[in-house]
């Protein structure tokens, strides 16, 4: 029995994905973010987070997965911000703020203990994306917020993924998920999607000078083909329905008397005595 449980835990930690194990996926993804294309994307993603995070409040914010940047949470007003390392053992980057190790589909956190959860491309490189969302739903407090950054399958990035996915290197080996499917998954868990923005309309090229010249495509793309952005960021709120007790309405039961059962009224004995006295006084007795 113990051996069976141990094998299940080990298999959960080493789940294979198109990019290899989940730990290897995040290790390679962090390396890719150090490339010119990764740094360009990271700059745009930080701008998106700088617009969203200041409006989210609470006591605890958790980022699930380290993509090699420590500035993603700088705009947050939440004092307790923490990053969960997926590929490392918790001692990586010790000087870059509080960190801990864990798996996205088995978060080492208490239920209803986190106000905001950030998933920076976590679902695309997880072998169990549904389990990840269920864990996020478990650890979020009622009315807590989920922020997700995802690669868009309806973009030039997906074409690049079709050509380079066989190399089994992130991000091209990831499983890109559309906004429609993401919304459906969140709706099943009771989340309300508050905001969904697409960004990065430039082609995925490692040529830094070319990317700088094509910067005008960002405004052009948002205006004319907004659905074809390379990535999108989605903000959702955990909805909790409160139960209002309904008091029972008590109705008075009406008495139904059957016909013919009503007794005739008898004169009261006191009235008879008074009537006899009146007759004697008047000489009628």
Give a description of the structure.
It is built from nine helices and nine strands. It has 285 residues and is of the alpha/beta class. The protein has one domain: Rossmann fold (3-Layer(aba) Sandwich), CATH 3.40.50. The strands form two sheets. Strands 5-4-3-6-7-9-8 form a seven-stranded mixed β-sheet, with helices on both faces. Strand 6, helix 4 and strand 7 form a beta-alpha-beta unit. The longest helix is centred in the first third of the chain and has 17 residues. The chain is elongated, with a radius of gyration of 35 Å.
What is the topological layout?
Blueprint: H1 2-13, E1 16-17, E2 20-21, H2 22-32, H3 36-52, E3 60-64, E4 80-85, E5 99-101, E6 114-120, H4 129-139, E7 140-151, H5 156-164, H6 179-188, E8 191-199, H7 208-213, H8 217-224, E9 231-238, H9 269-281
Parallel strand pairs: 3-4, 3-6, 4-5, 6-7
Antiparallel strand pairs: 1-2, 7-9, 8-9
């Amino acid at each position: 029995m113990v051996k069976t449980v141990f094998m299940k835990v080990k298999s959960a930690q080493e789940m294979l994905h198109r990019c290899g194990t989940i730990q290897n996926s995040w290790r390679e993804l962090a390396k890719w973010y150090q490339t010119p294309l990764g740094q360009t994307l990271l700059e745009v993603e930080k701008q998106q987070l700088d617009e969203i995070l200041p409006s989210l409040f609470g006591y605890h914010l958790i980022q699930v997965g380290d993509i090699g940047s420590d500035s993603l949470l700088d705009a947050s007003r939440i004092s307790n911000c923490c990053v969960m390392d997926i590929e490392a053992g918790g001692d990586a980057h010790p000087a870059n703020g509080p960190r801990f190790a864990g798996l996205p589909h088995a978060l080492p956190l208490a239920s209803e203990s986190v106000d905001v959860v950030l998933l920076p491309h976590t679902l695309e490189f997880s072998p169990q994306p549904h389990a990840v969302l269920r864990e996020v739903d478990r650890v979020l407090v009622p009315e807590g917020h989920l922020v997700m950054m995802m690669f868009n399958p309806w973009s030039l990035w997906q074409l690049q993924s079709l050509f380079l996915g066989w190399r089994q290197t992130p991000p091209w080996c990831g499983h890109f998920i559309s906004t429609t499917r993401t919304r459906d998954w969140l709706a099943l868990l009771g989340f309300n999607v508050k905001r969904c923005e697409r960004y990065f309309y430039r082609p995925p090229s490692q040529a830094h000078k070319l990317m700088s010249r094509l910067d005008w495509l960002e405004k052009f793309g948002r205006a004319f083909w907004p659905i074809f952005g390379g990535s999108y960021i989605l903000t959702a709120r955990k909805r909790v329905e409160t139960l209002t007790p309904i008091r029972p309405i008590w109705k008075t039961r009406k008495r139904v008397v059957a016909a013919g059962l009503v007794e005739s009224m008898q004169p009261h004995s006191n009235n008879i005595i008074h009537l006899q006295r009146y007759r004697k006084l008047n000489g009628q007795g």
